[in-house]
Amino acid sequence: MVEAKHAGVGKWVINGVLIILAIIWIFPFLYVIVNAVKSSAEYSTGNFWDLPKSFSISENWQYLTQQIQLGSGFLNSMIYGALGGALGIIMAALAAYAIETLKIKHGLLWFFVIYSGTIFPFQVYLIPIFKAYNKVGLYDTRFGMILIYAALIIPFSVFVLRNFLMGVSKEMLESARIDGASDFYIFRKIYMPMARAPLAAVFLFQFTWIWSDLLFGMTLTKSESARPVMASVSLLGGATIQKVPPILLAAIIVSIPTIILFVLSHRNLEKGFIVTTK
Known about the structure:
This protein is mostly helical. The chain has 13 helices and no strands. The longest helix has 35 residues, at 2-36. The chain crosses the membrane at residues 12-34, 78-99, 108-126, 146-165, 197-220, 244-264.
């Protein structure tokens, strides 16, 4: 009885802490929503927690379109997130399958070699990649951005997908081989469908990171034809920011794709999160 009472109190404490954290987390979001619809004059003269007296979304949107090419940035980031994320995850899935299922020679060593890409911060890679891209003609190109994003997401993706493969029944795979299935057929028809949950979780993680990236977008691009959306939005800032509401409106707009992706893939995320934490 006493233990049940303590368990109930602990549950209430945990729920209370989570509610407080949720409220703290939502305050910046409310700040953005409230001030994104204000005019720049109203934002400058009033308190930023005051409710808007008028809705100036069209005015802020017009300012955005005059200052930056948000549409081309959207398109570029969608391409980088979709193609770069898909390419990196496919390569990671093949590597995890080879290391854990095919039992290639020195598989564990290869895994540590691949995963060692997460040891150093990404800033370390900037100068070598920038120089290499300038030499081979990949600087300021969509193809170059897809390649670098695909390469950067491989280590973590291999880690997650290898964890999933470690829990797959080896007897099932051996039965498929006895029935005459090739290794690639097993990968394509058995492994990939079974890995739908971790694949969805990994793709959401990596797409969100690619979409939110500013570092490589600013360093490896200079033209609107290749610049991702976050690098485009960063052009609105500077030493003196004259109009804040348009920036807040841009922040809301650029967050929409990741929210949509989360809603579309939420069915597979719970199982995928379990795999990523093994």
